[in-house]
Amino acid sequence: MSAFHGNVTTKSAQAGAYAFLARAISEGFFRRDLLIGRSDLVELRVAVSGFRLAGRFFGDRAYIIEIASGIEATERSHLLPVKNLLYTVKRCTDAALDVAFPASCANCGAPIEASPLPHVCADCFARIRVIEDPRCLTCGYPFFGETVSHEGCSHCDRLDAEFGRGWSVSLFSGPVRSLIYALKYENALWALDDLGRIAGYAEGLSDYLEDSILAPVPLHKRKLRERGYNQSALIADAIARDFGVSSADGLVERVVDTPSQTRLNREDRYRNLKNAFQVAPNRTVDRNVRYIVVDDVFTTGSTLSACASVLRSGGAKAVDVLTLGHG
Fold it and tell me: How many degrees, rounded to 5, is the angle at CA 89 between CA 88 and CA 95?
């Protein structure tokens, strides 16, 4: 705890701080993607306000204020990497929280016992459909038969893809749908752990990602302010960390505040995204790098294709795509 520059020295104070941090994380008070630690230096300004807000849930607010003050001092001196702080906190709190607050399944609500995932029960885990070969080479949807060509795929046959190949980890149904919705709409950063583990079951994904740089689909600044984080950037960072590749968040930016795609048909989605993206003015595309555009779900492929298009226009020779869900 010395890195906090505080005077919290007792075990009870440390336990209180750990418990608080875990609660703040689980309740989504960290309004930026601090769990992944995308910055190499401390960026905990929002965490400090989260400390003071979430402190109301704890009786010992003196500890909370002291830790918050220490983090403010740490931020000013740029001493502590975000990812080191939060991963240390997570390791220290997970076991205790599982005992004090037994997890329930994010999909069905049942208690979780002996499951490979921390927030999905064993029965729901068995319902996850990780996509295997043969699959469509453009969108990644599975072919339930002997076909090895991507020709004739009903999910992308009308897509004029600006990317080369597509890969989807699993079907967008059941637990995967619940986890992605929780991450996207409920500030459930804890879902990243489950989603990352599901990606680990995708045979061949490591080879697909080899020697690539991940480029997450961006949010418009307005929506980013509202949500507090970009779920696609969180997913890209988690996959980059787990598979040992790099992520280039901010390489592509959304310059048009487009309406939600959720209720639009295929043609309207394409029109909605016209000129919506660009390579960020302060970034450059390396023509010798293979980029993989990352999003949460492959629906029509229009968003992924639009982002791939601007990377190609910026000079990229090889652009592929990756999503967690397909459906």
Answer: 105
